[in-house]
Design goal:
With 121 residues, the chain is mostly beta strands. The protein is built from no helices and 10 strands. The strands form 3 sheets. A 4-stranded antiparallel sheet has the order 3-10-5-8, with no helix packed on it. Strands 4-9-6-7 form a 4-stranded antiparallel sheet, with no helix packed on it. A hairpin with a 2-residue loop joins β1 and β2.
Length: 121
């Protein structure tokens, strides 16, 4: 069942040559799948990227790694080498409407809290 999803990001940049600037933007999806998935980091993910199906209607995915993670996380649109993500900070990706899958891999498994949370908006 689709939901109306809204994600607002607000912040400020200071110390710029021209001074400081505030920003705020809102991402909307009136037909969001509104789903959360928990991806367990497995040994297989250290040798090949794991495909994650993108739900219909999804325009954005928020990837939240384990807070204690110190391993490399990669994300790609195909089963090939991808972009390296920050090991602990969340990453927001804007997806094309044609995206059917997202591929995620890690450099090694972690001992505790071995889940990557995915929020499909």
């Amino acid at each position: 069942m689709a939901i109306n999803a809204s994600l607002t990001i607000t912040g400020a940049l200071t110390g710029l040559p021209e001074g400081s600037t505030d920003f705020s933007f809102t991402l909307l999806n009136a037909a969001s799948p509104g789903l959360r998935d928990v991806l367990t980091i497995t040994a297989a993910m250290t040798t090949a990227l794991q495909a994650v199906t993108i739900p219909s209607g999804c325009l954005y995915v928020l990837i939240v790694p384990p807070a204690s993670n110190d391993k490399t996380i990669e994300v790609a649109g195909a089963d090939v080498a991808g972009a390296t993500l920050h090991p602990t900070n969340p990453t927001l990706l804007s997806l094309p409407a044609s995206a059917a899958a997202l591929y995620i891999g890690v450099s090694a498994t972690v001992a505790s809290n071995t889940n990557i949370q995915l929020y499909f908006l």
